[in-house]
Specification:
The complex is a heterodimer of chains A (203) and B (400).
Chain A: H1 3-13, H2 17-39, H3 42-59, H4 69-91, E1 100-101, E2 107-108, H5 125-137, H6 141-152, H7 157-164, H8 168-188
Antiparallel strand pairs in A: 1-2
Chain B: H1 3-14, H2 20-30, H3 34-51, H4 62-73, H5 84-93, H6 97-103, H7 141-146, H8 152-156, E1 250-259, H9 264-276, E2 283-285, E3 289-290, E4 297-306, H10 310-318, E5 323-332, H11 334-356, H12 364-390, E6 391-399
Parallel strand pairs in B: 1-6
Antiparallel strand pairs in B: 1-5, 2-4, 3-4, 4-6
The chains are: A mainly alpha (203), B alpha+beta (400).
Amino acid sequence: MGLDEGALVARACQGEVEAFEQLVAAYERKVYNLAYRLTGSPDDAADVAQEALLKVYTSLPEFRGDSSFSTWLYRVVSNTCLDELRRRKRQRAVSLDQPLTLVDGEDLSRQWADDSDGPEEILTRKEQRALVQQAITLLDEEHRVIIVMRDIQGLSYQEVADSLGLSLGTVKSRLNRARAALQKKFSELELFGPKVVRRVQGR
Amino acid sequence: MLCELAGELLSAYLDDELPSREALSLEKHLRVCPTCVAQLGELREMRAMLASLEDMAPPPGFHAALHRRLVAAAPAGTVKVASLAAARQRRQFASRWVAAAAAAAVMAVSAGSYYWQLGAHQAPPEVAILVPHSTGPAVSGTGTDTTPPTTGESTDKTQPAGGSTVSTNPTGNKTDSNQSGSNQPGSNQIGSSGSVTPPQPSTAGDGVTPPQPTQDDGVSLASQQPTTSGTGLTAVPLVQTGVTLQGQLLVYRTDIKLQAPANEIILARLFGINGDFGGTMETETVGNVQLSGSTGTAKLVTLRVPVAKYQEAKAKVLAIAPATVQDYGPLDVTAQANKLQQELNNLLAAEAFLAENTNTATDAAARLATVRQRIPDCQQQLQTYYDQAQLATLQVMVVD
């Protein structure tokens, strides 16, 4: 940690909101995207990411510099995100009618396959990405978070281990199980095979 | 190797995280097992699809919302500027200002009570308070809350010159700067002349014309009428108040690298110095700080002392151990603060206007989002100037 970061931590520790905001500015996007990939919804993601950063803010006095600030932050954030996910899951079971949300906010109906009566449809890249996101959100939380960290955000095994408080061996085996589970979802959603242009299967 | 075991290894193999002995035996298996090869292919394809997912920018309003939540969570006593939420809440209670004014007799009262001159046909602006802008270090949010509409000039005189100042942000949180008589006379006395032209927030409910400020009290009110076009409300009214700080807003800060072990003795001495300069000053310790290129750790102690005692405190810190010193300041931030205040006035005016005219103003929603994103930054920065002009900062890093 550089001196600047140390000074910001000090001020943020004291409660200075501005210092805190400066401190986490560099991580905000990453935190938001972690939350987005975990929740699959831009609105929920904003809320969860804010919750997580708020948690970082209130937990800051506990930061003792044993690890780098970024590692510590990521750990607090992922814990908070996981807690939030579990809490929300308890609160409301995902409705099957809940629309899939695309990156730009368009809805992709879950019943898209039913629309194939007409001309054969094309599964665009955008739709494919939405399906990939859907597959991720179908995983259980532990698998979801490790996939997002490793395969989407590109953390190393060691970083994943530090962030989740796991041993390297556990990271390895959990990632293996998570990928196997995701592979199954991908198969179910017919995501494997020729990409970019894909025919949507009829009923 | 059995397919079952191979399946366990594929994931790590994909990431080059498999020890070479295991990797070799897996490869041997892959040469004879099309199923596992296909499996590996799918994993690779899946990984590529995941990696191709694009990063998304946080939605508009993310920062502002985060800021509001942080401010709400900030510990009591931490100086902060009123959030929009607080402003709204304040509007609800605005009618009580007369009673509150009596209760706040001790408070340094700001000339910066805001009013907003608006035609009766125009909905009053939503934001009823702003950052007190005219009192500098003697920021008196409570004052803005309680100053009667037409007495900006006269109430301002109740502010003790250089005496005890109790800063209160507009949400009512006291700051901890009540070191009686400790403010440096002169350099930090700002705006007590009252030649300030407050803009006009409405304290009135909908449909009620805000109190019209009188013009004969020596306070010139330069608020512009919001521009209203015949066909629709497209122009955002700007508040051109011509607010200027009287005097200077000076910021002092010194970074000290103290060559001493970061042990309890040294820290106790620093705390002692802190204690010598007024019991209610903000101080804090931080966790051990990892130094780049060094295995050791350092302690970072931030002392915030009244500007008047700052040199004295600095000398005491330097007496502890050999040190390297970097002084910043006095830095005159008056102009910046004035500019920020002006911007904030305009932003709040714009916010209120756009919020009231969502249906008629051009691109109201988008503009509102932009404005709302900027407001907290602006408030925060301004408050920082005020804070720093009150309490000088001694940032002490204790390191062997």
